[in-house]
Amino acid sequence: MDSSNDSRFKVIKGDAGYVLEDVPHLSDYIADISTYPNPLQSHPAYSVVKQYFVNVDASVAQTVVVHKSSQRGIHFRRAGPRQRVYFKSDEVRACIVTCGGLCPGVNTVIRELVCGLYHMYGVSKVLGIEGGYKGFYSRDFIDLSPKVVNNIHKRGGTILGTSRGGYDNKKIVDSIQDRGINQVYIIGGDGAQKGAELVCEEVRRRGLKVAVAGIPKTIDNDILVIDKSFGFDTTVEEAQRAIKAAHVEAESFCNGIGVVKLIGRHSGFIAMYATLASRDVDCCLIPESPFFLEGKGGLLEYIKKRLKENGHMVIVIAEGAAVGLIPQNQKTRNQLEGLESKEFGLWISQRIKDHFATEDMMPINLKFIDPTYMIRAVPSNASDNNYCTLLAHSAIHGAMAGYSGFTVGPVNARHAYIPFHRVTAGRKKVVVTDRMWARLLSSTNQPSFLGSSRDVEDKNEKEPSTPSLDGENYNKTGTNGVAAVL
């Protein structure tokens, strides 16, 4: 990787194949920038904690499962407070913006950013940007204080409002410059993080002392590199409620079928983990796993088999599962053409009804449940609240330490500062050749649908192989190319 022509790429190499993919720093382009002692050194809560500050050379390994002959591999700079900071507390003017769709925990992140800046570093000037990126240049900013945000973690949604689109790099940085903002915290998915990267580049081009920090948000858990996105645990927990309802409906009727459509346009993590957690699911369909409807070994045949065995059935379908469906005839191909991903659950439910009414002449009672917007709107649970706090504090520590152009998240359970380009280079996928998917197949007893069709075999051959002894592989390299801005 060449770091000389692009400010995004900072690579430090060491012994035994050690590679640090570093993040930009204000000192990279601002000469003789001043530093100050970290206020936490005299903070009554933190000064008593020994070894609270992170060593300047500490890094987090991207891969922890290695062999005795393995190279040390890629690392990221470890998140946390440094002994020296690059902003005086009274000169900081921070802003927070939320972009994209709703997700449990957004309000918690906002709260902890405001309270963390105020209580840890004595920052009292924090502004909220309303309505996403376009709020930078089309809306008035609102003042945020610990009193204003005190109880917002108990509510779903975002108090700042959100939107998709509206990105105008020049207008955004003009607003940042005109209002004297020097710390920008951007909460959003891969599109928002790509936008944050462009903001950071424009800030650097203008020579502004502005730290840009990203906090990755996606309910689908499909952001690369990081272990897990905030809100995921809450989403899986809420998804189980829908699965439980579908199971009650299904087992209460003769040949009852409960179909639950869950969030997951590109990746099936929510469907997979909710299925494993519930233990009431007979079949789980996700974008990464090829399947087909008709013929021997197809989904319709499996449904008939399960109904004869148990008298009822529960099917979980990820929103984007249509990607995995391999049409067996022209009729199916025609029906799928132009079908939106959010419509696939209803479409396949209708196909099941039509099949058993016309071909097998078998009466069924199918209930379709779509809890998407109910799940998105709930407040985060205890696990996600704790996680959101760590994310917010790590972002604050990084910005105060002068780092910019980074997103923060756990890598192998240690929080790290990750260059924007690493998390926007694609989407994390479920690896269906991995043991986690094998656990799901064992739990549901569904067929893998692999090998029963030449088309399925051809599609499966394109998937990357995963060594069977390396444990859970979350496909952190991504396969879908560079994400578009918003």
Automatic annotation (TrEMBL):
Keywords from the named record: Allosteric enzyme, ATP-binding, Cytoplasm, Glycolysis, Kinase, Magnesium, Metal-binding, Nucleotide-binding, Transferase
Residue numbers marked as site, Important for substrate specificity: G191
Pfam families cross-referenced by the UniProt entry: PFK (PF00365)
GO terms for cellular component: cytoplasm
Phosphofructokinase domain boundaries: 94-397
Pathway: Carbohydrate degradation; glycolysis; D-glyceraldehyde 3-phosphate and glycerone phosphate from D-glucose: step 3/4
Tagged with keyword Iron: no
Known partners and oligomeric status: Homotetramer.
Protein name, entry field: ATP-dependent 6-phosphofructokinase
Gene: PFK
